[in-house]
Structures are given as C-alpha cells and as structure tokens.
Queue: 2 jobs
Job 1
Amino acid sequence: MSAVQPALTMRGDSRVRRRRIVNRLAESAATIAALAAVAVLGIVIFSVAKRAGGELSWGFLTEDLPTFGQTGGGIAPLIVGSGILVGIATAIALPLGVLTALFLSEFAPRRLSAAIQLTIDLMNGLPSVIIGIFAFGLLVYGHTQSAYAGGFALSIVMLPLIARSTQEVLRLVPRSQREGALALGVSRWRIVVGIVLPSALGGILTGTVLAIARAAGETAPLLFTTSIFVNQLTTDPRHAMPNIPVQIFIWSESADPEDHKRAWASALVLIVFVLLTSLLARLALARTRRKLSR
Amino acid sequence: MRVSMGVVPATQELTEGRRVRDWLGDRIMFGLTLVAALATVAIMVAVAYKVVRGADLSFQAFGLSFVSDSVWDTNKEVYGAAQFLFGTAVTSLIALLIATPLAIAIALFLSELAPRGVRGTVGALVELLAAIPSVVLGLWGILVLGPFVANHIEPSLHRSLGFLPIFSGKPGSSGIFVASLVLAIMVVPIVASICRELFLSVPSELEEAALALGSTRWEMVRGVVLSSSKAGIGAAVILGLGRAIGEAIAVTQVIGAGNSGIHASVFATGDTLASRIAGQFIGATSKLQISSLFYLAAILLVIGLLTNLLAQVIVRRFEFQRVGAD
Amino acid sequence: MTQVTMPPMRPVDVAERREASPETREPVFEIRGLTARYGTNVAIKDVNLEISRNLITAVIGPSGCGKSTFIRCLNRMNDEIGSFDHDGQILYHGIDLYGDGVDPVEVRRRIGMVFQKPNPFPKTIYDNVAWAPRVLGLKQGLDERVERALKGAALWDEVKDRLKRSALSLSGGQQQRLCIARAIAIEPEVLLLDEPASALDPIATASIEELMHSLKEDYTLVIVTHNMQQAARVADRTAFFSLDVDESGRAGVLVEYDETTKIFTAPSDKRTEDYVTGRFG
C-alpha cells in the first residue's frame, strides 16, 4: 500500500506563526510612523491655532505695528512688506527660471545642458542662510539694508524651484507636436510661443505658486538683508522692509509674552497662507500632469 | 548668401519681412534663454565667490586652524569653528538617526500598505509637514516642544541613562537635543517623499513573484523593495542630511546659542555652523567677527555642496541602473 | 530588361492607373547619388530617382531599409538629428535642397509632411488648421483658407459645425485628416506621407487612401508604406528599397523604381519579385 499523504490543513506551524507576527509588527510600525507624522503636523497646527486664537482679529490684520511696550496693534505692515518682497523675488525668478528651463529643453547642446542642470540642482540644496549672507555681501555691505536686497535673496530661493517645475511641464509636451509644427515650416521661436508654452502655462503657474509659498516662509535670506526694525508701513523698496517671518523670529526670541502672542498669531497667518497655497497648487499640478500625459 | 526659393513660387509668397522676423526671433529667443541660463550659473558662482571672499580677513588672521579651534570669543576677538562643526555633526546625526527609520516606515506605509484613498490624503499631509516654515517650527520649538521635552522627556532619559555621557547634563528647554528633534521633524518628509517614489517604482511583477512564493508582505518588502532601493534610500538620506546641516533659523531658536565649547551631553546648549551665523549676524560689530561668520559660511558651503553633490552622483548613477535593468 | 514569367502571385488589387501625360512627367525632385548617414551608420546608399508632378509615388520595402530616412531627406526633417549627414544631391525644381543659403523653413513651406501617428495640436479644430497660416503671415481670408483645407482633406462636412471644439475630440482617422488639412492649408506643392495610415483602423485607412486620389490633382504625393497592397491601390509609381549587406554594414538601396503596375506584375529585379510575392520581408 502506498504511503498516505498527511492531510493538508493549510494552517502552518509555529515558524509560520512567528513570521506572521513579525509581519503584523512591521505593518503596525509603518502605520504608527505614518500616524505619528500626521500627529506632529496636527499638533503644530493646533498649537499655533490655539495660542493665536485670541490675538487674531480683523484689526490684527489691518493695523500698524504696536509701538514699544504697547499692547494691541496689528501686522498690516508685515503683510504688505512680505507681499512686496515676494513680488520682487517673483519678478526676478520667474523670467530667469522659465527662460533657463526653455534653454535646457529647446536649445541647449548636451554638455552645456548637464552643467546647467547640475547648477540648478545644487542651487536647490543651497542653505538659505548662505543665500542670505551672500545677498548681504553683495548688496547690503557698504550700503543699507533694502527690500531690493531681500527680494533678490528670495529670488535665489525661488529660481531653482521654478526652473525645475517648468522643465517638468515642458518635458510633458510631446515631441510629435513640435515635429508637426516644424514640418509646417514654422520657425523655432514661433513653435515655442505658439505650441510649447501654451501647453506648459498651467504647470508653470502652479510651479510659481509653490515657489511663492516657499519664499513667503523663508527667514534666513531676509534676516541679513531686511531685518532692521521698521515701525510702520513702508513701501519703498530702497529701504529695509518689515516682513512676517523675520518679525516672528524676533518676537519668538523676546521675553515679553505679548510678543509671543503676536508671534503665534502671525505664525497662524503665515501657516494658513503657505499651507493653503501649497495644497491648491499641488492639486492643480496633479491635474495638469494628468491632462498633458493623456 | 541666401538662395531665394522664390524661383519656385509658393502659391503665396512669404514676405521678406516675415522671413527676417522669423530668423531674428529665433536668434533673440536663443540669446535670451542662453543669457538666463548663464545668469543662473553666474549666480551660483557668485555665491561661492562672495562667501569665500568675505572670509578673507578671518582667514588671514586664523588660517586653517580656525577649523580646529573651539574658542569663539567676541571680546578677545578670537574665533574658531570647532564647536560648531561638532554641533552640526551631532544635531544632524541624531536627527537622521530618528528621522530615517521613521521616514522609511512612512514611505512603506504610503507605497505598500495604505489603501488607495488613504494613500493620497496621508501623503499630502506628510508633504504639508515639509511646507511648514522653519521659523514657525522654531517658534513652536521654543514655546511648546522645548518646555515639554525639558519637563517630561529629558528627566527620564537623565534618570535611566544618565550614566551615558550624552545624557549626563542638566535638562533644559533649549539645547542640542531639542534642536535635533526639530531637525528630525524637518528631515522626515524629505526622506519619506523620495523613498515613497522609489518604492512605488519597484516593478509590481517582482513584488508579485515574491508573494507568490509564499512570503509575507514584510518579507517581500525586505527582500524585494528595500534591497533594490538601497542606493536611492542612501541618496534620500544624504539629501535629508543636507537639509539638517543647512537649517539655521529653527535651530538657532531652540539650541540656546551655547558658547562654552564642546560638550558630550546633548542637553547642553550649543550651536551649529548655520545657527551661529544666523544668531550672531545681527549683533555683529567688528569686521573680524563678520569675516569669521563668513568663514563659517564658507565651511558650511563646502560641506553643503559636497553632500548635495554626493546625493546627485548617487541619483544619476542609480537612475541609470534602474533604467538599464529594464 | 528581360520579362520573367511569374508563378501565380498573391492577389494584389491593382487599380486603374492614370496614364502619365507629358505635363506630369515634369520632375519635382531629382535625387542624385543620395547617401544618408547617422554618424557612421549608413542608412541609404546611392539613391537615384526622379519624382514627378501630380503623381503618387510610393516607397516600399522591408523594415529598416531606410524608407523613412529617405522621405525625411526630402523636407530636411533629418536636420533635427545631430548625427545626420549626407552625400549627393536632392534637386527640387533644380535647386539643391541642402545647398548653401537654403532655409529649411522655406523648404518645409513648400514640402509638407504628415506623420505616422496623428499629432494634432492641443487647440481647436479651427486653430489647428489656421495656426500655421496665421503665424506665417497669411492672415487674409483665414476662414476661407481653413474651409478649403478641410474640404480638401474630406473633413469639412464632419467638423463644420464644431470648429471650436478641441481637435483631440476627433477619432484617429479624423485626426489624421485634420493633420492633412493642416499641411495643405499653407499651400505646399508636395505632400510627404510617412506611413499615414499605419496607426489607423481599416475604415479610416480606406478614407485616407481615397483622399490621396483626390489630393494628387493639386499636389505631388510621396508616401512611405510597409503595406504593399496599399501601395498597389494608391500609387502611380513605386520605388522598392531593400537592404544591401556588405563588408561595411547594412544600408538601404533603391532596387527598382517603375510604374506600379509593372512593379507588382512584372518586376525586373528578382529582389522586387521576392518581396512583392511575399517570399520575404
């Protein structure tokens, strides 16, 4: 009689059980890690919102900074100042970034292209404190602090971001369309203006918005270029300009709890702006990617 | 010398003006984009140049021993970078030790474990963590995290592991430990999002093959996903390291600007290269002090560029490997 | 040339050919000793042929024999490839296309191209046809120009009510006809078609082939196709390319060029015979 096979129970022995436990542990660890990250985000935002609560009001957003020792007041000059600084930075970084990306994607010979690409990647990882100290050495030392210097420093933060996101959308425009236009006898520059850029415009816009969100929160570049305490609303870019991140920094190091309250409220304003624009821009970017890769 | 194709009539002849504008437009566009690209390179070069030039005075005074000298005295005008190099090294190391396993776990969660809908939301939230401005994180660090750590975490570490020199000092709400925690929070989303892309790009056929052999999900991840992503994870960690090294604002807010040299305890105050530059610049008066801060910046620049370069090299080599394997 | 008695051939639909009248014998292209290279790879070697006006000339042959390279020489699209180089001459009405001072943009104005995969711009149907004329300065009578082009491409009736819709909403066959309309809107003399129907379904293919018959009234057509039956259906003249393997490598050569009927019923070269009877390729 042939040997009878033992019945297949599919249940497994202790070794399999141990492997299953290890698996379960690993899955739990991954889930806990993810939850921890979300929790930290939540805790930070919650802390800011809670401590900012009382201080934040319409008046806070529209009034001038409080003079020394006073309570109340608002951060209107900071909002305006940040707006102007980011505006100057965008005016520099947007054309430079888009044109550089166009050069890499449409005109550059191979070797030059690799060198420029590397430069952009290195600039991307440049610590912003070094950007600040550079802008100081270039534009402030021997002169005065100014919004031009601050805006210039911020533009160096934005430039690689805009260049990279523009490159990404330009790559998504199919070569076959460029070929089709070329075969019609249309010159290179008209192809860029009439076919390539219109398709890429949405992506360039969202990339710029993401860069703006990033620049709005940068402190170090401004610390060296536009941090002298200015009490009231200034719009002259030749002088130092009050701005949100530097002011939060100064208030955070102060001993006065009133300053802390103002710091929290300003932080809430900054966080809301940065997080909302980042979220919206990323959603729009995902949609552009889907549209262009159809 | 242009040959006129006018010999062959097109049904409608293009005007000479149009041809000239075509040619001119091409030249102008090429010129503009070239100038922009060169300007970008010029800025990068200018940054390096200016920083090194600014350090000149200090370099004349202290030479290369600046790097190993741990005294920073603004009164006596003696400056040295050693304690900040130490601070940078320690904070980055601790931050990476905490952040790397967390980030990899999160990336695995987002790429392997989470159901479709959760993936998008949690992924977006992790990216938002990266978007928090560092000054806000620093503010939270000073007023929330610092006191919490000082009152709850550091005492227990001191009690249980105080025999170890790193936990030996007096707990405080600012210091190397708090700074490392804040840096870890900043580094996690960077490493996690790169690793997530990495893990998602592992071909599903490989994963299915492992599972079909009867391995558990974790065994499959370890054997297929993680082992084939080693280089990429390395690059991600190095990029995270670059972030930690370069962060000035949040660190200077919570690290306490210690000036008493190199200590073993992580509870002590200290400073990193970046945080010392940011912290002292406003009040700096003497030319030598400013130049010494530039010297610190030059050292930071070199370290930063090298780590960034290393990461880029790994990414480029790794990309070819992955693509070449197809 | 000796007539070779052929064994029964694969059924090939040989349509009525228009007798080549004296005017249509006028050469549009004279290709003399054309050799094309990409770096050190020779793609086609020593091609000599004349392409005549208002005829459809098909270029057939097995894959890799340089058909696409050949046709892309005719409108200088190969200029886009850095390693491209050539010997010999391509005379267009007596002018060397690659001569000094010849602007490739001008060349492509007169010699249009339709590609294998339809590549309409992400614009409206109207704008797809109108963009190039507008950009080239032919702004007068744009509406009429668009209508004429769409009629010429046998697409007008299908799209006249939805000119402002996106071109990407059209079917594959319609998109390809749109690409043809786009090409003829700038009134070229020649239309080059690089496997224009190979990405299309049979019904769309049939409509393209029908279109070509009407297009040749006004244009000179050169079509590359890997589908022999298509060449037999559509072309007045056929050029058969094949691969020539020697010590220096593989290169495409022109084996035989003649009236289509002759190529498919009584080819002079054995290689042609082998190909059209399906013995290889």
Job 2
Amino acid sequence: MATTANVKMINLTIEGRAVSVPDGTSILEAAKVAGVLVPHYCYHPGLPVAGVCRMCLVEVEKAPKLAPSCATSVAEGQVVHVHSEKALEARKGVLEMLLINHPLDCPICDQAGECELQDYTFQEGRAEGRYRDPKRFNPVEDFGGDVVYVANRCILCTRCVRFMDDVAHDPVLTVAERGDRALIGKFEGQDLTHPWAGNVVDLCPVGALLSKDSLNKARAWEMDRAASVCPNCSQGCNMIVETRDNQVVRLRPRPNDAVNKYFMCDHGRLNYRWMNRADRVEEPLVRQAGVLAKTDWEIALRSAAALLAGKRAFVLASPNLSNEALFLLGKLVRRTGGSGSFRVNHGPEAPLPGVEDLALRSDRAANVRGAEMAGFRRSENPLSAMQAGDVLIVADEELGDVDAAAAAKAGAILVIGTTLPAWARHGANVVLPIANCVEEEGTFTNLRGRVQRFLQAKAAPGSARPSFFVLGDLLAAMGDGQGYWTASQAFDALVATQPSLAGMSYDTLALKGAASADAMAAGVGGGGART
Amino acid sequence: MGFPHRPHERETLVLSKHFGEHEAIGLDGWRKRGGYVALEKALRMTPAEIVNVVKESGLRGRGGAGFPTGVKWSFMKPGDGKPHYLCCNADESEPGTFKDREIMRWTPHALVEGCAIGAYAIGAEVAYVYIRGEYTEALDKMNAACREAYAAGILGTNAMGTGKTVHVYVHKGAGAYICGEETALMNSLEGRRGNPRIKPPFPAVAGLFGQPTTINNVETLVAVPHILNNGAEWYKTFGRPDNPRSTGTKLFSVCGNIQRPGNYEVTLGFPFKDFLYELCGGPLPGRNFKAIIPGGISVPIQTREEAESSPMDYEGFVANGTMLGSGGVIVIDDAQNLVKQIARAARFFAHESCAQCTQCREGTAWTTKILERIVAGDGTHEDLDTLLEISENMTGKTICVLSDSCATPVVSGIKKFRADFEALIKKKRVHMVPAQVA
Amino acid sequence: MSAPHGEIGEMHAPAHASHGDRGHHHVPYSPVFTGARRAELDELLTRYPTKMAALLPALWIVQEERGWVSDAAMAEVSDLLDLTPAYVKGVVTFYTMYHQHPVAKHFIQVCTTSPCNVCGAEDVVKSLLKHTGCGELGVMSPDGRYQVIEVECLGACGFNTPLMVNEKFIESVTPETVPELLASLG
C-alpha cells in the first residue's frame, strides 16, 4: 500500500471507519486497511481478479446492487457496509449454494481447521442446509506432482487455474465442462509437475487440492507453527514451519512481497525430512584414550579451547549456518590468524515466471551471502587452503566427497555440528552438538543481501545447543567475551562490526527482514560478495 | 411478414419484406431490391454523421436490453489510434426467438450491409458476425454473401471503390447460450470459454481483443440501412404516438400453443391482443391462452389478462410487469402443465450456466432439481418458499444476468400461477413420464 | 512419465499415458492440418489479431474432418495455436457441439426446450427412440447408425419440432413424420 506523491488518494468509509487509499484500490483491499476482513474465496492478492465466487459482496450506499468488493474500485466518499443485513444475506446465500453439493466430510478432510469454507460457514452461514436432493459426485483425481484433487469439495474459485496460467505460466489446469458439472480438469499425461505447482494446494481455500506429502499426517489444530525462512536455496523464501509432536510435518510459504510474494517452490516445501533426522549428535564428545566419549558442555568447551590454543584455525563452514554463527566463526578465525572456506551444493535454477526475481536458486544453501560476509571463501575444493597443522573446525559440514588425505593434514579436528559424519568418528578430537536451523533462532542473508530472521520451531535433541550460543561460549573459553544469552545479542554484536547492517536489530527486522546497505546500493540485481 | 405464413395486412414490412424470396438471397437479387445503396451513401458520410442519424432515429438494441444504438455507437472514438471492432451478435439463443435466423437465411446481404455501415460508423475496419453453430443454413448463406460481397468489391480494402477498409467475417459458435451475452461472445470469439466478463471495463473501452468494441444484434444492424435510406424522421413515424422512446418496426417471433407461429413485423407499440388473435390466429381450437412470455424465456411470465393489455414496446411491456426482451413470444395454453414448463426452462439455464458465479452454477441446478421433484409429485409446500429464496439469492448478484433469467420464470410463475404448483404438490406422484421411456 | 516418488516410478508406465502416444488404440495419429486444411487454417489466422481466436474455427475443421475432437486432435490444435492441451480441453468441454467421443453416422439432436416442449417435442423424441432402435437417449442404435440426444433450444421455435442430423437442420418434425425422415437419411 505504498503511497507516493503522484498517486491520488481516495477517501471512503468502510464499516464506519474512514480510510484513505490510493486510487484504483479495490474495496476489499481498502477494507483490510480499515481492519475489516471481507469474506472471500476467489480473490487472492497474488492472482488476477476473477470475481466469480460472489462471496465478497458488500453494500455500497447509493449503488443499486451489491458490489463484488474484489472487483470494485474505491470511489471518493463511498460508504461501504460489509456486515449490513443485505450483504450478510447475500453471503449466506452464497455459502448455502457452495455447500449444497459439498460432501460435508470435514471429519476426514485434511483442510478441516484451516478451511475457509468451514470458517465462513461458522461465521456467517446457515445453521442448517435446505438441500434435499442428490448431491453431485466426482471421483478423486491424481493431478501428478504432489497434488491430489478432491472434486467434490471444489468450489470452482479457479485460484489454481489462475496460478498456473498467470503466475507459473504453465497452463496445465483448466475449468472443464460448465454449469454444475464444471470441475477443474487437466489434460491426460500432462501433470502438475511445474517446480512451483505445489502452491495450488496453499491457494485452494478448501480441501479440494491436497498435498500428497502431507495427506493425513496431522490435523490443522494439532500443529505448532513458527515463522521461518526456507533454508533450501539462497532465495530465502519466507515460510512457516509446522510441527506436530516436535516433528516437522509441513512447510508452507509465508507472504513477503519483497522476496517470495505468497509462494514457495516444491523443492523447498518438500525438503524437510532432514530437519527431523534421528542420527543427530546429542551430547558433547571429547576423545579420551582414543575413543570419543560423552562429556558435559563445560569440559567439552574447555577441551575445544585447549585444542585451539596457539594454533591457527581453519574453518570449513556450512553456508546453511546463521549469520550469527558465521560471524562468530569468522571472529574465531581472525583471532587465531587462520582462514576458512565453504562450498555450496548446486541444482538447476527454476524460476516462477510471474513473479519478478523469484526462483529456486542453483545455490542450494540459505546463507551464501552470510558466509561471504563473515570472510569465508567459496571454493569447490574447500580444504585446499588449509595448512598442515591447522585445527580443522568442521562447522556443520558433512564433508562428503572431501579428499581424506587433505583432511589428514589437520593438526586436530573440532566438529561443531548437528551430526557426526562417519569419517569424523575416527578423526575428531572434540564434537560440539548444535541445533539445526528450525531448532534455533537466527538470521540468513539471501542472495540479494536481504537479512531475514527465522524463529525456533522445535526443540533440539539431547544437549544440543543453539549454534550462536556454543560459538559464543567457545570464544569465551578462549578468553574472548562473555558469550551470548540470546541470538539477538549475537546479532547486535555482528551489526556492530558490519557497516552494511547498520541500524538493524531483531526488532527492526521483525518478520519480514530488511535489505543490507550494500544490497540497497547494488539494487535488486546486484550484490557482489564482500569480505 | 408472418413468415412462414403470408404477410398480414396489419404488419409493417421493412426488415422482413423479402423473407421467402429466394432471389433476394443472392447479391444480384439483393441489389435489385435496393441493396448496398445505403452503404454507398454511408461511406461518403463521416462516421459522426451516421451516428447522428441513427441517434436521431431512436433505434434501440433489438437483442434484449434496448439500449439506444446511436448512443452506443457514440461511445466509440474514431481516430484514437486503437483498432476498433464491431461484433454482430447472431448467437440468437434465447428460447422463443428465431427472427435473426430468418434475417440471415433470406436476406444475408442486408446484414452484411448493416455490419459494414456499423463498422464504418464506429471507426472499425473489421466486423465479426458471431453466428451460433446450430444455424447451419444461416452460416452457409452468410458465408456465401460475404464471398459475393468481397468478389464485388463491396468489402475489402477498397470498399465500394472508396479506398476505405471494411471487412466482415463470419465466426461460427459451437453451442453455448451464454455466448449471446456480449462479453461472453467476445471471449468466445477470442478462442476462450464463453465466460461473461466483469464490467467495467465496458466493451467500448476494452472489448474484443482488449480494444474498443461495439456489439449489436442482427436486427439492429439490418435496420440501419433503411434508416440511412429513408431518414430518421421516417423511422420515427413507426411507433405509438404517445411513446417517442420506442420507434421503428420490430420482428416478433411467435411460438408455442398458437394457430400461426412464425415471425411478424409490426411497429413498436402494436396492441399485443390484436397481435395474438388477429395476426397469429389466436389459440388452438378448444383451448385458451394461459400464460404468455413476450420477450424470450428470460422475461417474466404474463397472465393472459396482462398480455392482452400490453402495447408491444419497451415501455408497454415494462408497465405490464414484463419486458420486450428479444421479442420471442412464447404462448402456453391451458392444456399444458405450466410447472413442468417452468422446470424445463430452469433446466435450460442450468445446462447453459457458464459455471463462473456460485449462485448461478449451483442455483440453476438446485432450482431445476426442486422443480422437477415437484413435477414428479414429490414436492412440499416448503419447496415453494425455498425456490423463492434461492431465486432471490440468484438475482442481481452475479456477473451476468443468466442467473436472474433463471429466477425470473420461477418467481413470476409462483407469483402468478401458485395454484398450479400447489395442485401438483397436493396430488403427489402422478405425472412425470420421462421422454426416454418409450 | 514424471514420477515424483520412487515407488510410482518403478511401476510399469501405462502405455496410453505416455506423451508420445497421443492416439487411442495405438493407432498412430495422423494430423488434421495438412494440405488444404492447413491452408484453410492459415487463411483463418489472417482474420484475427491473435492465434487463439482461430481456436473455435480450428476445432470445427477437426470435427468436419474426423467427426469428433479427440485428445490427440486437441494436442495438435494446441501446438498450432501456441496454446496448451489443457486449455484447449477447457474450451472444447465448454461448447456442447464439439463431440469428445465418436458419434453415430446420424447424430440426431432434438430440441426439447419449453417452446418446443409445449408443442410435443417429447413425443418426437419417443418416436425417434423407437424408430431408430436406440431405445435410450445418447445410446447408439444396435446397427450403429443412429444416436438421439435432447438439446437445448435450437432457435427455430416456430418450426417445431426442429432437430439437427449432424450438420443438417430439419424443421417441423412430428412423431408421425419420423419414419419418413429416417428413411430420407439413408
């Protein structure tokens, strides 16, 4: 709702509240500004207006008919009633019509609890239907990809069709047939395999399009939710992590106009099983008499500090660590006169054509910019810069495919990670278990230099601790500072050393993040690495 | 011309004068009857002059809405740098209406000429005639007329030697009532599903292919050459002297339970009673008119008494609780099960709903199910209240008026013939012999 | 065949579902738009500012040529007009005159909407079902020659009962004239 000097502002009254919005705004969006939700189904801010569900009808004084608020622009002096008797009656009528052929199978429907048909029916619908005739039946259809279509629950809002047409630019869905025989159709052999097709499941306001992956996994009310950022590529799509009993069961996009609008790719949304992996390192380990033995944090940290005393540290960092962790690792490297590098997994880039600068990025890591900002060097052969005798700090890197001989050059090995790679069972001197990115708080910097917070969604296993906490304590054990109690303190320390982040704090970043100064200077397309 | 019957002396034959004359179908025969004189004249006028004459004549849209044609044309701004389009709505699908079909069957060149004049008047170089796919004969005749007109230099990039470009293309529909709705027709012409569009934007701003577009009914366009030839004053002489808002002649299609169904051309304001009894011969032997729908199935049903006191013009029908609509007169006599016919009308709309708006998609089908249940003898008294409430939910709340059109016969039927419904509800399970059970 | 999950990918791909084999019954699909038909489409394309606008005419050409519009034909048309097959399917299923399945030699569509209904259209339907041997609406007669369906308003309400046999429009049919009509079809 950006207001600039050359946009004419329109003043109107919605439910008795005066609002001023730019010319051309729909009544529905203006009502949001006034704090009034107009019930709707087919309207979605990320899609072209269809105006077909007729749910968002509102009464506009002096207009002869009720107006579809999604498709009606505001006008100066308009007086709009969203909850007048006339408008409520009309919406009650729509709800009744939507339910006559609906199977009313909420008890077995995945959407129950987060279903807009359910919500508005409870809010405004009739207590009892008057439909006495046979219901229409259509079989469930596999749409391919991750999507299954339950036609009987479909309200023909066409959000899915419009998403595939106008946002994904891959029109594989269509409204087929007409009248009450109409349903969403696709062409035999052409499936919903577009890398962003899974968004149709989120867009569907009812239980008609369901994710096969999350089918029957959890009821909406059984899940806990946390705001987060997708770690599966460098785009940094905002997301919600949903857990049930401390297990991540679903990832969904969280709207952010500056990054991902309302969307998230299938790679990101389905790539969550690693967040639940069971082979985690749960206790600090120290090598004693040739074997790694469980110990407590105090001993482990002291052992790690002793390992590093008077030695150069060479850090092999994961580009999926938070800015806070990478900053502290960088600090450790500089303190010991060492160096560090990281490598990035790759995959094919998959843009969402209808949204500017949104793609599944080929860099399949969340924080490449953060690693660069912390002074680490990107390399395909990350151990090449390690000098013989360096203490190798493996910071949540699985170290697969790394030349074992290169690792053997290390004077000692300190693992700070979520897992203990097989090779390190023999080589590691100290192992410090940390939380993964859905178990702790922190920030990532996306490929355009936008710094975004993620919150904790589940508890870390065993004695594992947040990465910023462990690294703060390690530095403290080396005589540098007092450690940090919260991630925001660690972030403040980072900001103090990074002019490009000046002015940022967890409060100012809030849940939408902010662009770093050099990202701003470089514009959307820019953003070179800095050291 | 009371086609297929001989003209009645009280008809005023302007548009239908040559119905039934095979010679009038071809270009030579049409030229002998004064064809293309008006176009030649029009191409030497400025578009604004043509628009003014049509405005002055009082010609109103003959498709159903009755919007003044000259005013509609004046919304187009020739010279705005955009391509303009004329669409001729020949999708005639309103049950009870079959006048455009006869115009195209017998006088295809009249429509080609009307389209050419209309296109030129609104600054368009292309006119599309959208003809419903079922009108195979009309399609053949119109295609042939266009070919003749191109061959004779009437159409093309040098229309009638004036250096002006006028194209008329025939576009064949494929079976969808809703494509008679102007924005649905445009979508269909563009190769889309025939879904009506939200207005605004109106067609004159962004219509066919997103460009300024005017859409006119067949009968409207074929009246234009006559107006240009004879002048606006001449056209205005047709009509009730006390109602200057309805001028000209109008083709009425008559069908149902009546002696002489067919097309009749009368001046607007003609007494409906005389029309039904004198021109059309009155009811079949031994029967009486029961209900009359004067403007296609979408307009409210009239009782015999209401119909007999209506003057046949836009205002006259409104004053008697209905509308002129498309001029498709459906007569139902006392031997019919009126409720069954209303159910049949509802089924028509349920079949034709485009499926966009909830109330229409679901409401037309629900209405049909209830009505068919009542006809089958399983109705209840609550059903009538439910029907009226559903109809209320279907009225004035959707993108186009198909939903309203379905509600209209239901509401007017229950209001005016409630006893028929109640009799069926009381009787329980006697009627309903489905057609397929031989 | 795309297979999102391994277990599905390991199954044998059903032959009819593979993209390369668009036709039914494994008969290779021969395109409609070659030679004169292609020229006809090219001429049509000059009439409109978009390729999409030629979709309904192109589908008519398919139906004239093949008698119905198959999935394979939809795919062909979508390629020619830069559309997707799903889009074309959405359009085809909207319009009732495009046949999505092969129909009988004489496809008879009888108007039974109210104006014709009050004049006895249902009796015409009954007579047709009897004399064609179809017995039921939509069902092909045992000899495969006839198929009778009810349609909504054909727009010839004053000439009841009107019907269409394929592309031929026939007016004023009565139950009594049905045998004569059928005989004339050959």
